[in-house]
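[Automated response] Your request has been received and processed.

Submitted sequence:
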Amino acid sequence: MLDRFARLLAVGVLALGALAASDAVALESPSGPVILVVSGAIGETNVGGEAHFDRAMLMALPQHETRTHTPWHDGRILFTGPLGRSVLEAVDARGSRMRVIALNDYASTIPVADFEKHDVILAMTADGRPLSVREQGPLFVIYPFDDEPDLLNEVILSRSVWQVAHIVID
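Generated structure:
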């Protein structure tokens, strides 16, 4: 009797898991201009084997604010955008590092652990204004330098890519 109950319970748990998986929202296709492409070791795609995001899709992710000084700005700036880890979750990233590539082909390798350990954002606005390409946008990797002063070093500064266009997960 107990063995039968255990089997029924296991079947019920599996059924609930399948139901939850079927309720998962697939990554929608972008309807506006694509500002970010994520490729490589990812489980969620929407264009071929890649994940393409327009501005609205990135805005739909939970937004985070970081008020910090940077070496590239005067004063303390309020940056807003999705947490890097939210973008990685959206694409079901399965690697341990990422190559972040800018519009001008500058690239930096960033450990996925940085996005997990720190509140790193893909900033889309600075002081409430959208970041244009001329102003280091449309996306800028911003670390919380004021909240974590140890991050203000050459290694992390080299990972603070602006004009981000592509992330390749390895």
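Summary generated for your ticket: The mean pLDDT is 89. The domain at 28-169 is CATH 3.90.420.10 (Sulfite Oxidase; Chain A, domain 2).
If you did not submit this request, please reply to this message.
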